[in-house]
Amino acid sequence: MPFRLTSLIAATLLFFAAGTGIYFAFHSHVASPTPLTATQNGAATVPIAQTTVKKEMSKGTSTAAVAAGKTKLPAPTAIATATPAQAIPAGGAEQAAPMQPQIFSVSGDIPERSIDIRGIAFIQCLFQSQFFASSSQPKAEAYYSVGSGALISPDGYIITARHVLEPDKALANDPAGRVWTRQECHALPADEAQTPVPEPKYWTNSALAKFKKADVVFKASDAEYADTLGSDIAILKIEAPEPLPYFPIYPQLIKFDSGNKLVVIGYPGMESGKAQSLERFDGTFNTLTFFERNTACNAVTLAPCGWRYWIRRYSYDYEKDFYTPTPLGIVSGFNRAGFSGSPAFYKGNFVGIATHRDPGDTGLGWEGTYVLTSYDILDVLHKNNIGIQNTPR
Fold it and tell me: Residue 141 and residue 126: Cα distance in Å, rounded?
């Protein structure tokens, strides 16, 4: 969920992605889950990870009917040039999916782990236009994309959302014909004190002194990425003179139970001129899903393709704690841009990264986020022969 910062433009909630002008790599994805069922060893059908494929929003659907559970609430129509903020879940009939033990872990069987916040990083990438060097106002010819990431090895490899590294699509039709090119990226892992991250400014090096240069060593291919709808991942590398805290990647999809809680932790971004604080977005698992135009996904085989855990938060469950400091960051008052690339945890296990925001329904008091599963992340790394030292601590 990127977050553009310039000297002339106040922080805009862009998206989870660098440069997809967000509204946040999230946008209105409002949908009601349609659980699939699964048969295992000939036994009766049982709920399976609530896998869904989602439908277009019908304009006549009432929120009252939805609240009463009488109406399925599908997602709004996909926008032609969908940004991550506008990636809309699919519509489709329910399909039976076989329970595959080699793919799924049962949530109740997963052990608890502690979360070391020093494995969470603030990510920023500098973009400049072709006019930067010759402009009399160079500050107008550069901006920072901002997101979050997670260390996945002790030697400094960081995973984030690929869209954080891409030019802002909102600037694609610039009247002056500007073409934006990424110049460099930097990362700053959190510390135990949760020290706020300095405001990014390309015109001064004072803030950058705290950051580590981050080399882009891998980006999912365009086919894998599917314009943010598929495996929206990239890998950065920072120097690590000493072993760094990191998160082992959970290898399977998880068959969550209703009410299982997940937490996304990262730097969602505030407005320009302010330091960025570590924040947490807590929610409840709602469904396992994929995006409509991501045609690689198959709800029967459940092969890796860009599966998302859709988690949802009702404000009344957390508002009393909004903006309260905790050992895992400040309780976020609302979901927004810089959470793109943030690690998501279940019982302390790293189970994916946030890629898209769901603004939800203010009338019903909920919002959500889509998390690319660790199952998909590992598949992409393996297919591309990305070798990292990632074993259980």
Answer: 11
Q: Mind listing the pLDDT tens digit for each residue in 326-340?
A: 999 999 988 887 899
What CATH number corresponds to the domain at position 364? 2.40.10.120
**Does residue 48 contact residue 286 with C-beta atoms inside 8 Å?**
no
Residues 273 and 344 sit within 8 Å (Cβ to Cβ): no
> Which residues have a Cβ under 8 Å from the Cβ of 295 and sit 6 or more positions away?
none
Buried b (16+ CB within 10 A) or exposed e, 24-58: bbbbbbbbbbbebebeeeeeeeeebbbbbbbbbbe
Euclidean distance between CA atoms 142 and 152, whole angstroms: 30
Q: Can you give the pTM of this predicted structure?
A: 0.75
For residue 11 the two structure tokens come to 């922080």
Q: How many CB atoms lie within 10 A of CB 96?
A: 12
Phi, psi angle pair for 371, to nearest 5° = -115, 115
Domain of residue 356: give its range.
Answer: 3-25+111-383
Query: Does residue 26 contact residue 84 with C-beta atoms inside 8 Å?
Result: yes
